[in-house]
Amino acid sequence: MKQKLFTKSAFKIALECPRRLFYAYDSNLYANQQLDDDFLKSLAEGGFQVGELAKVYYGVKGDADIDVLGYDESVEKTKELFKNENINIAEAAFRYGNLFVRADIIEKKGNDITLIEVKAKSWQSGEDFIGNDKAIKADIKPYVYDVAFQKYVIVNALKELYPDQTFTVKARLMMADKKRNATVDGLNQMFRIRKKGQRSFAEADARAWTEAAAVPRNEWILTPFDVDDICDKIIDGTMVEKPEFMEGMTFIPFVEKMSKFYCERTKADMELGPKCFKCPFYKTENDKKKLLDGYKECWMEKAKFSEADFQKPLIKDLWGQYIRRGDFLANGKYFMAELTSDDMARKAKTSKSGLDHLQRKWLQIAIATDNEDIKKEFGSFLNDGIYLDTDGLKKEMAKWTYPLHFIDFETSAVALPFYKGMRPYEQVAFQFSHHKVDVNKDGSYIVEHADEYINVEKGFFPNFEFVRKLKAALEGDQGTIFRYSNHENMILCKIKDQLVKSDEADKDELINFIEHITKGGPRAMVDLAELVLQYYYHPMMKGSFSIKVVLPSVLNSSEFIRNKYSQPLYGTETMPSKNLKGQVWIEYDEDGVTVKNPYKLLPAVATYIDMPQEYIDEMEMNEEETIANGGAALAAYSKLQFSDIELTDALKKALLCYCELDTLAMVFIWEYFYHMCNKK
To answer: What dihedral angle (degrees, nearest 10) is formed by the CA atoms of 470, 472, 474, 478?
Structure first.
């Protein structure tokens, strides 16, 4: 393999953990889960489009947009373009020693250079980058250091390239400005995602070069914020930072040391800490067998782990609210079995309904470590390793009014607004699903997928129609409404703010509806996630209560649910569905015992496209691509905005099935609770 140079991506990794530089050097050697995560995040949030819009704003196209990939070739291309007195360049390349950067935008006016780093992050005009402690605010710090690194390389590269000239380099961080409203409609849709080999990118259409390019600079949705003075302080080592940041070094020594580690393929020393729990260099069952596991290497080296130790209950899997796991590591405690009441307060279960956060942690520890003494504290509610407080649930159920309504929203918040007048990252509610459950006098019940809504119309702002449809779905009775976690409550409150500023004829009626069902209202939604936290625990959940984790846990907890949904019952007259017919939800893993996660059973998007595979390939669809998590749903909605009709229809069907499963998952949880509380 050709030796690599120390790039801004490598610099970012070094700031997170120097050891990761070794693992990041060769993607064919070590597994790296962040590669897919970063791509999905960029696709969902509009990172690709943001970069392309910046090029449009600065009028960069043709030869000034450098698409040469090699180090030497791209540097030579930049030198050629620098012969122009005034020019704006995208992906201008600079090398200084073993350091190499590609600048998103370089604005050259004679010998005055403006470096513009473009990020999909949002910021607000007038907001300071420096906090009260004189340090850079934590949420913006990685981005500012990225720009500082680029400025350092460019300044020194220009000195070497042009020893007889003097250049000034000013640094700007261009971000979506939360104070700006889009002045053109369909801005996001002007930048279509394309794929070439393994590389994804956005491509501006003709409208972008006419409408977006004509927007006056003071109306740009992206603002180039001045970070030059901060970058200078970072480079000269006078920026206030915590002692442990950059390994206790100032900027230049840190860059020199890290670049040497990276370019010479040397493993940096490291200490175990909370950052290790977020290390992306680990293997999953989907990774190729030949790939190495950097996460395991570190623990084997520093904590002397054996392969068997990774199977033990680790503190990294402990539910993390209100604890400092870094303190446990500092004391050399890596396993749940090593924790005592000196590490974390221990409170016996009282007659009070529900678990508090400490009791839940000790419950998890007791089950994971099979500690009989602690298990006894949870009494008769703990059976066969599963905790279910039926007494507490019965008290909760007594407050509910039938029929019950289970709702889930799919929303999008992208850097470049889909609609004129919207601000960056303003919420768009494009889809909901609604299941209804009614109980008969004999205790039997009826489950139906009652309603759904999805917007696939390009250029249509759906939020107000979304609320109208939701209102129509829920206003027929006063039954209890369930959400899972706070997302639905937050989204409705955001839409209420939009309605207040709107001229909608029925805005007062819609606002009253939102106030009625959100927190504090007379029909406020019940958070099913809170009930799970207080009354239920299965060891499969480990430290998570995400519905994607709770659903398979419930299915593995309940023989009743497994037997019922092993049959093609769902999507029949008995249990109507809007999208599925005769769906079997229970399949087992290879062990024949563990129920598969139903989200893995959802059909691939390509199955909805009645076309030859070569056409699907042209639409850049992976034949196995599914919508099985929120990030994929956001990315799918972004694709909808500029897809051909065939792919639009396929994505619509996949999104409808995914969102339907979200509310069905809530029904499964309720059904398990209801069955266990009414067992005779």
So the answer is: 150
Selected residue with higher pLDDT from 406 and 625: 406
Strands 428-439 and 404-412: antiparallel
Sign of the C-alpha dihedral computed for residues 386, 390, 395 and 398 taken in this order: positive
pLDDT in tens, 454-501: 998 877 889 999 999 999 999 999 999 999 999 999 999 999 999 999
At 609, the pLDDT band (50, 70, 90 cuts) reads very low
Measured at the CA of 262, the angle between CA 257 and CA 267, to 5 degrees, comes to 85
Higher pLDDT, 202 or 218: 218
pLDDT tens profile 524-575 = 999 999 999 999 999 999 999 999 999 999 999 999 999 999 999 999 999 9
The answer to whether 657 and 603 have CB atoms below 8 angstroms apart is yes
**C-beta separation of 71 from 135 below 8 A:** no
Q: State the residue for tokens 């709702």.
A: 407
Give the mean pLDDT of 447-452: 98
Measure Cα distances from 309 to 305, 647, 677 in Å. Answer: 6, 46, 38
Beta bridge partners of 68: none
CB 230 within 8 A of CB 136: yes
pLDDT for 66 beyond 50: yes
Which pair of tokens denotes residue 645?
């009709």
Q: Which residues of 433-472 are buried (b: 16+ CB within 10 A; e: fewer)?
A: bbbbbeeeeeeebebbbbbbbbbbeeeebbbbebbbbbbe
Rounded to 5 degrees, φ, ψ at 121 are -65, 155
Quote the CA–CA distance of 644 and 648 in Å, as a whole number. Answer: 6
The per-residue DSSP string of 564-576 comes to HHTSTTBTSSSB-
Euclidean distance between CA atoms 513 and 494, whole angstroms: 14
Q: H helices of 264-308, where?
A: 294-302
Q: Which among 538, 427, 437 has a CA at the least distance from the CA of 482?
A: 437
